[in-house]
Amino acid sequence: MGSPDPAITPEAWEHIFSQAEEGHTLRQISTAPGMPSWEHMRASLRASPALASRYARARVLAAEAFEDRLLQEVHSISGEDTAAMRLRIDTLKWIMSKRAPARYGEKTGAEAQADATAPPAATRPDGRPRSIRRVIVDPAARLEKGS
After folding, report:
1. Is residue 84 part of a domain?
2. Using one digit for the tens of pLDDT, what is the confidence trace for 24-79?
């Protein structure tokens, strides 16, 4: 077994984060000359909340880079080919489902069925009730109907 990796320098972390923002994984980055091992980078990220936060931000930017790439590819599709147009539309719908999953994401069968049969929400977005109904029940009338 080799000697442990030396401490990762701030310059190396900047390069790691830059590569991660472009969509490279830690395993891919670790294969570049002069880069620390994949295990050492993961251990360092687990040990440091600040580094983990930076890496998480880099992964968000990587997702945006992938989205940009998908959009470029989709917009390069030309012609009247039905399959190509379907791919274009499906890709745009997929991107929307990731950007706004609550609104455009796919729903499970149970969620879709619940949405179709559910009455309108009883509360406003601010949490206040939409309406309040007061029902007065005459206990004597209920007893007469039951007998």
Report:
1. no
2. 999 999 999 999 999 999 999 999 999 999 999 998 888 888 788 878 877 787 76
CA–CA separation, 102 and 99 (whole Å): 9
Question: H or E segment at 107?
Answer: none
Q: How far apart are CA 135 and CA 36, in angstroms?
A: 70
Structural domain count, the chain: 1
Q: How many contiguous H segments (helices) and E segments (strands) does the chain have?
A: 8, 0
Evaluate whether residue 24 is within a structural domain.
yes
Give the domain extent around 37: 1-61
Per the CB < 8 A criterion, the answer to whether 70 and 23 are in contact is no
**pTM as predicted:** 0.54
